[in-house]
Amino acid sequence: MSSDTAPLAALTFEHLSKTYPNQAQPALNNLNLSVPRGSRLGIIGRSGAGKSTLVRLISGLEQPESGRLLIDGENPAQLSAAQRRNRQARTGLVFQHFNLLLQRTVLGNVTLPLELQGVPRAERERRALALLDKVGLAPYAKRYPAQLSGGQKQRVGIARALVTNPTLLLADEATSALDPETSASILQLLTDLQRERDLTLVIVTHQMEVVRAATTHVAVLDSGHLVETGDTRQVIASPQHPVTRALLEAHRPAVTPGNGQMLRLVTLANLGAQTLSTLARLQASVVQAQAHPLGVDAWLLLPNTVSEAELGALSGAAAPALKLSPLAEVL
Amino acid sequence: MNWAEIYPLLWQSTLETFWMVLPSAIIAQILGMLLGVWLSVTAPGGLRPNPLVNRSLDAVVNIGRSLPFIILLVILIPVTRLIVHTSIGSTAATVPLTIAAIPFVARLVDGALRDVPQGVTEAARAMGATNSQIVRKVLLPEALPALVNSFTVMLISLIGYSAMAGAIGGGGLGDLAIRYGYQRFETEVMIATVLVLLLLVQGVQWLGDRAARTLDHR
Fold first, then answer.
1. CA-CA distance, B200 to B198, in Å (whole number)?
2. Chain A residues with CB inside 8 Å of B120's CB?
3. ipTM score of complex
């Protein structure tokens, strides 16, 4: 049954539902999605949409009520307790509130997942130090989390999540507790590591900026239902569902397009001379722009005769140098 | 009485107090910690919730804590005889002292473990930690400063309880104060004893606070 999807998908949800005891509404309702390996998927929704439940299911903290969840083609429900723990160790988790152990040093926090697996001390410290170096915190190895800033704590969290060499990295509102600048650097770190290590990165967030900045694919959740999925740029360019539009337009500038004009959000590589000349050729004006690690999000006011292809070419300049596997369509 | 007469008495009694309190405190801390871990693990929302076990342990702890020490001292005489083969003297007093302190420690440890944020426990569980690993590598180390504080509070309580050990010939500072200071109207002995007790309690509190602060990295 799983053999047809297993080779490609890092994560598969099949008719996945979850209702908590004493709750009338299901937290997740018949979720179907396949996440290709090596993709960066954003799972976005408002609070109560079912994001946390999904994270808890993937991380093994909750069991599905019906349907199934496959991680690398494996159904955790069919594994033995020891195999399931092993599976959990191979899924990296990054949390909103870091969840670091305050009585352990930075190094002690990063070595913990290996310690739990019985990896010898010298080996786990070597691996942890290599990762701390990667996230730029090697000099802080002997400090305690309380001595670090929020961004530094999250870097420790990321190093800890990766120390077991997982293939799947799950970031649950990982930047929600951080200021915009720090958020941007954490998202940059996550996307860099994703490419470098060929990870499947799942970013759970309520902020469309995060999805726009760091993901290749997006899934929109609302009241436990998956309401829209697709390529991030496409979904942003032409959102189909009202919830997606609402999430997108949280930052829409208060400008009413004139006759024959349209207001569109486009991700540009930069605002350099070449981009500006292209914008001029298209008779587009930048209404509002916000820089993020992977480019500049710009709201453009432009003639509605500009084609989707031309818009796509504009965005294309900012496309990360990553070979995308297409997001398998909703099952 | 002059100082030359009081001094050896004081010294002897202080040693007796130490001999009663320290072994009791150490054994009670170990056993109380086990009971406290068991309480918090079986609590609703714990690592392995078990309402029946939890409620039973809770009842045992409450009964243990509500019995006045002087009564415990008497009703435990058969148990004491069984364990240390005597029911009088300082050594005999360690048994009721230990048993009185266990539920006390258990309650404090239970509270200390519950104060470890759930997110941290869940993070460990999501890393594939077993319940036993979560207790040993997450809950107890994260609660260490609180555990040290609970040890200090318990030690001071035991110094107080040990004053009653005179009832079974346990000796110690409290007994000295009663026998000389109260029954023989030797006010100097009473004052000297109270001063030593005061210093002892202050010293224990100071050391405990210092240790907890050094160990606290939060």
1. 5
2. 99-101
3. 0.87
Q: What pLDDT, on a 0 to 100 scale, did the predictor assign at position A302?
A: 87
What integer pLDDT is reported at residue A295 of this predicted model?
A: 67
pLDDT < 70 stretches in chain B: none
Nearest CA in chain B to A106: B217
Alpha-carbon dihedral sign for residues B1, B4, B10, B16: negative
Query: What is the pTM assigned to this prediction?
Result: 0.83
3-state secondary structure A234-258: HHHHCCCCHHHHHHHHHHCCCCCCC
Q: What is the pLDDT of residue A318?
A: 45
Contact A299, A286 (CB under 8 A): yes
Residues in chain B with CB shorter than 8 Å from the CB of A145 are 217
Whats the size of chain B, residue-wise? 218
Tokens of B112: 């200390």
The predicted pLDDT at position A233 comes to: 84
Cα–Cα distance, A48 to A41 (Å, whole number): 19
* CA angle, residues A10, A242, A259, in degrees to nearest 5: 125
- The residues pairing with A301 across neighbouring beta strands, listed in sequence order, are A263, A285
- Structural domains in chain B, sorted by start: 3-215 (1.10.3720.10)
Answer whether A89 touches B (CB < 8 Å). yes
Q: Is A62 on the interface with B (CB under 8 A)?
A: no
Degrees to nearest 5, angle at CA A48 with A43 and A51? 25
- A 10 A CB-CB count for A2 gives 15
Q: How far apart are alpha carbons A308 and A318 in whole angstroms?
A: 16
